[in-house]
Specification:
It is found in: Membrane. It comes from Polyodon spathula (North American paddlefish). With about 475 residues, the chain is α+β, with helices and mostly antiparallel strands. Helix content is about 25%, strand content about 30%. The protein has helices spanning about 5-35, 55-75, 90-95, 95-115, 150-155, 180-185, 270, 435-445, 460-470, 470-475, and strands spanning about 120-125, 145, 190-195, 200-210, 230-240, 240-245, 255-265, 275-280, 290-300, 310-315, 325-335, 340-350, 360-370, 370-380, 390-395, 405-415, 420-430, 455-460. The strands form 5 sheets. The protein has a 4-stranded antiparallel sheet with strand order 7-4-3-10. A 4-stranded antiparallel sheet has the order 6-5-8-9, with no helix packed on it. It has a 4-stranded antiparallel sheet with strand order 15-12-11-18, with helices on one face. α2 (about 55-75) crosses α4. It is elongated and about 145 Å long. The protein starts with a helix and ends with a helix. Mean pLDDT is about 75; it is low at about 40-50, about 75-95, about 120-140 and about 150-170.
């Protein structure tokens, strides 16, 4: 037959393709039948993308699932055993239908295990890489990923609400400039100076003035006078807040000029470790003293010997109310005479009750046995001071059997000639003490007769004492 050139070229290419395919098939068949390509006991045969050895727990679950499926379908045939490298044949290895069926079976088993056991391990099936095999091969094992089961309650307990709360006081004001602080809080600025005297070994602090203080409405809504402020400044060297100083009160002004100097007797090396704290306070006779703002300056960051002047912007203070002051009391009991001796030594940093001359404080001491007021005594009045020295002694007749039921109520007042005396603070020492320091002082008295026991006590408000001590309710 004669064909056109195009048909002859097509037949030539077709014959070459069939000859090449037959040659390759014959070569692969002869290569497989040779002994060098047969799997040995030390080698592993990899079937597709899955590992050669199947975990025991997966084989058991697979057999159980097959038994359940056979019961549902009515088929009583037994489940086929897992394929091993020794049982595999070339036809089975080349069968794509068997590979698809095994893929579907394994996927179904893993999904069923996940639905039944949330904490069961998962198999990380990675693609198999083919490379030149050595004489010794190890079995390829799947990587097991175990996800720990976390209850819902434990998960939500990990959240810390304080990290998500909005609190202006928690801002890092150290990274802000004075202009940024002033624009953010708008509490005004304070002008002061510091210098250390090496000859006298004391730190000199000068409080000069303050500017643009806020109106009282922004600090305390319970004030009667909302049009003006009556500011004064309290200063201390942290962490010792007890040894503090206080300026006079400037009446009805938002730009007070103080021009007052104070000294702190402290060694130079110790002064460099301290932080100078200024608190600007608004005085109110008929309400409470409100803290407008504060300024803290670390003395290690400045040249104390050379000194300097600073304008610092006020920042909000976490302490809204001013402390009421402290009282130093000494107690001594004489069991043979049946006498309880009380010494009122001194007080310091009392709450100022008079705007012009500080305060005129005195102390009232009242003995309460059980819930009955027995005796009342008081000290003399100290004029124009908030750091009075009393040094007065009092004696109460208390029998030893009644000492366990006794309570001493100490109340500090500011003398007022025009109206009733101004309440400053109170503490109760005895059976109905107002706090742990007072209870500790009373226990030392009971265990050490004939020995004076003295201790500083922080004054408390009337409402706090009435809430925790029944003896405070029995006195006026």
């Amino acid at each position: 037959f004669s064909f056109c050139p195009a048909v002859q070229g097509l037949l030539s290419k077709l014959s070459n393709f069939l000859l090449c395919r037959w040659t390759c098939q014959s070569f692969c068949q002869s290569c497989w039948e040779c002994s060098c390509c047969q799997p040995s006991d030390e080698e592993v045969e990899i079937l597709g993308p899955f590992p050669a050895q199947t975990p025991t727990w997966l084989v058991n679950d697979k057999n159980e699932d097959k038994d359940e499926d056979s019961d549902k379908d009515g088929d009583n045939t037994a489940a086929d055993p897992p394929v091993t490298p020794q049982d595999a044949s070339p036809d089975r290895r080349r069968s794509s239908s068997d590979t698809s069926r095994s893929t579907y079976s394994l996927t179904r088993r893993v999904s069923s295990l996940e639905s039944r056991r949330p904490s069961s391990p998962l198999i990380d099936i990675k693609p198999t890489e083919f490379w030149a095999m050595g004489s010794k091969k190890e079995a390829v094992q799947p990587a097991v990923l175990r996800k720990p089961y976390v209850p819902a309650d434990d998960y939500f307990h990990k959240f810390e609400p304080r990290l998500y709360s909005v609190d202006s006081s928690s801002d890092d004001v150290d990274s802000l400039t004075d202009e940024e602080i002033l624009s953010r809080y708008q509490l005004g600025m304070l002008h002061f100076s510091t210098q250390y005297d090496l000859l006298q070994n004391h730190l000199m602090v000068r409080v000069i003035e303050a500017r643009d203080l806020p109106l009282p409405l922004a600090c305390d809504s319970s004030r009667q006078d909302m049009a003006h402020s009556n500011p004064y400044v309290k200063m201390s060297l942290l962490p010792d807040q007890k040894n503090s100083r206080q300026t006079g009160v400037k009446r009805k002004t938002q730009n007070p000029v103080f021009e007052e100097r104070y000294t702190f007797d402290i060694p130079f090396l110790e002064a460099q470790r301290r932080t100078l704290l200024f608190s600007v306070v608004d005085f109110d006779k008929f309400s409470r003293h409100c803290v407008i703002g504060k300024v803290a300056m670390s003395l290690c960051d400045v040249d104390l010997v050379r000194g300097g002047h600073w304008w610092k912007a006020l920042v909000p203070s976490s302490q809204n109310e001013v402390e009421l002051g402290e009282l130093l009391v000494s107690l001594n009991y004489l069991p043979s005479a049946g006498r309880l001796n009380v010494d009122i030594i001194r007080a310091k940093q009392l709450l100022q009750t008079d705007m012009s001359q500080g305060s005129d404080p005195f102390v009232k001491i009242q003995l309460v046995t059980g819930l009955k007021l027995v005796k009342t005594k008081k000290t003399s009045c100290m004029r124009g001071t908030i750091d009075p020295f009393f040094n007065e002694s009092f004696s109460f007749r208390v029998m030893q059997d009644d000492l366990q039921d006794a309570s001493l109520v100490f109340t500090v007042y500011g003398h007022n000639m025009k109206s009733s005396n101004d309440f400053v603070g109170r503490i109760v020492i005895g059976q109905y003490s107002t706090g742990p320091p007072e209870s500790s002082h009373w226990r030392h008295l009971l265990t050490s007769h004939r020995t004076p026991v003295e201790q500083w006590h922080s004054l408390r408000s009337r409402a706090e004492c009435d809430r925790v001590s029944p003896a405070s309710l029995e006195v006026t």
